[in-house]
Amino acid sequence: xxxxxxxxxxxxxxxxxxxxxxxxxxxxxxxxxxxxxxxxxxxxxxxxxxxxxxxxxxxxxxxxxxxxxxxxxxxxxxxxxxxxxxxxxxxxxxxxxxxxxxxxxxxxxxxxxxxxxxxxxxxxxxxxxxxxxxxxxxxxxxxxxxxxxxxxxxxxxxxxxxxxxxxxxxxxxxxxxxxxxxxxxxxxxxxxxxxxxxxxx
Amino acid sequence: xxxxxxxxxxxxxxxxxxxxxxxxxxxxxxxxxxxxxxxxxxxxxxxxxxxxxxxxxxxxxxxxxxxxxxxxxxxxxxxxxxxxxxxxxxxxxxxxxxxxxxxxxxxxxxxxxxxxxxxxxxxxxxxxxxxxxxxxxxxxxxxxxxxxxxxxxxxxxxxxxxxxxxxxxxxxxxxxxxxxxxxxxxxxxxxxxxxxxxxxx
Amino acid sequence: xxxxxxxxxxxxxxxxxxxxxxxxxxxxxxxxxxxxxxxxxxxxxxxxxxxxxxxxxxxxxxxxxxxxxxxxxxxxxxxxxxxxxxxxxxxxxxxxxxxxxxxxxxxxxxxxxxxxxxxxxxxxxxxxxxxxxxxxxxxxxxxxxxxxxxxxxxxxxxxxxxxxxxxxxxxxxxxxxxxxxxxxxxxxxxxxxxxxxxxxx
Amino acid sequence: xxxxxxxxxxxxxxxxxxxxxxxxxxxxxxxxxxxxxxxxxxxxxxxxxxxxxxxxxxxxxxxxxxxxxxxxxxxxxxxxxxxxxxxxxxxxxxxxxxxxxxxxxxxxxxxxxxxxxxxxxxxxxxxxxxxxxxxxxxxxxxxxxxxxxxxxxxxxxxxxxxxxxxxxxxxxxxxxxxxxxxxxxxxxxxxxxxxxxxxxx
DNA sequence: AATGAATGAGGATTCATTCAT
DNA sequence: CATGAATGAATCCTCATTCAT
Lengths: 201, 201, 201, 201
Description:
The structure is a homotetramer.
Chain A: H1 9-25, H2 32-39, H3 43-50, H4 53-68, H5 74-82, H6 87-104, H7 106-118, H8 120-147, H9 156-177, H10 185-197
Helix pairs in contact in A: 1-2, 1-7, 3-4, 4-7, 6-10, 7-8, 8-9
Chain A binds a DNA duplex through helix 3.
DNA-binding region (chains A, B, C, D): 31-50
Pfam families (chains A, B, C, D): TetR_N
Keywords (chains A, B, C, D): DNA-binding
């Protein structure tokens, strides 16, 4: 995660502690006093830097979102699509890439998910924006493979919805609900198989 | 929802207000004063009835959980399995039944999901219990249809996991994230098709 | 001062303490903790009742203003003017009446003056309103005595301004700057003489 | 205003900002952070220069007081008294001179008045001192014109008090309450007439 | 000489909870 | 039984001030 550079040791401890505590107990159940204590700084230092508790949250969440979603953007997509790969290969690359990213930023991911689910306000601000990004990017990919005749005959945006539902459920259940460190290759393969072929014999 | 019967008007107003507010803003961001005001009772009345704010939450969540998960238990399962239905039929019945139940109890469902995601503590108490219930019940069903040869050749509990992931994502994304009133039949059919056959041609 | 009736003992102690401390140190230099301590109540009790520190201030100031200015309204004015009195008599009655009122409410008067002088915001809200009340009431009186030929030949509103300047300075210097308990009759007579005849032989 | 010479640009910006903000919102409602921001210096610079916020206030107030009151001292008084002028002429010169001075230093005057009214502590330190200065200087003047037979037969210090009350009210109401930039000659003449002859025909 | 970083002490305000009536 | 009154403990946040660089 590319957080603003040139933080002092104390400032780094603040964001570390904040992420850890927000991930563990949720933003609303974490007091600035707790963060200060965990970071071994004064509360005042937190407010000097971030102004409000809310801005502290945003300053953690936003860089994560920027990498979580648009990262799979042009670079990734184009390279993948230019190669002679199947959608299954693309999906495999995508899942492995995102699993790796989330594994490395598991706590921030937890914070992001928890707060999007919990804070109506934040959700309403972010969801349309995220939905737009995801849709616009992925719909190209779907369209690309669809024209190649790789998918069964259902509308592209139905495919998108189902994928989104499953992949979202996949990441959230593993990284947030079960609090797993990572997801192993075997499970990724299970997921890919499920997505590609379903469960019917 | 079978909440304890014989509630006075005031008691009903309290739980209605609590559910509405918890669903909207989350338990942590709702004060007992707000609930009291919305329910047009004194704060003291709430505490007389429920002892603590936490017990109030539990008294809303627990009846919902009891119906949400175990409801699909013996009655449903046995009847379904006894008939000569395919897994697809079972899944259709199950989804429709649960969509109906959640539609009618959307706000409580939102509270349940939000708090399970948010409160590590609550999650740790409930997840093993829920997981046990779901697993024990559904694994019988899976095993039943598996023996009938309806599934591709993957372990039963992999099937269970994938189903759980997808169905959970399905309900949460629609009823919590998107705050939909219900899910129409067409989308249910899309989901069934996705689960059964995946997306590959 | 007619403050809202039916205050509990604690509630009365709150307003007493607030008035005393605001008068002594000014609103901005008095913390709610100090008020609570002086009143021997919890800070929470103050906020339960008044919501904010600002509303507490207003709830002290407004009843005082209502009596301070419009009190000299219809009752006083009409009776005075109906009698065959001179302006000097009217002024004497007015000054004595107001001195008595302020003596009895010296601390609130101090709070009112201090905050009007100090808080731009409060001043801008109150001054136009007060000015309107004073002007509309007193200009009638001035006009009345002016037609009787009691005044030298200067515009009525010049007389009003000079009176306001002097009487304001009189009350503020004595009751606020010098913190006097009251103003004795001799000084009132000096003031009347000054207003009526100036200082030139 | 003769503030200490040789101020660097930064130091000037500090006192300008401080005066402006103190005049506008009052000392207690102005933070050193605000001053630093307005002056475009670091807070630390303010404290390096002035030690404490209180000393900053005093360093603004004291030079003003020195010119506001004693300025009318020896030079002014003697010259005026030596000429064959009436008290009315003296008063006219005095008022015009003070109006000019305050007009040019309106904001500092506002700070001085506001803080004297507001801070019991400051008031108690300054009032006896100021009163002594004013009394000792002006009582000579009053005595001078009194012996010339210009005044009606009331004690000199009663005249002094009334003058002080009116002139104080005059300046404060115009420059502080109404926040006027200056006072025009017509109003000064009205004031002089009022002081000299009162309002009785 | 100037400042960015840091903070202890205190600021107003909110909260879940208790209890006498 | 219901509630108005009351509160201790916490919450987020601000402030004047210090100090190493």
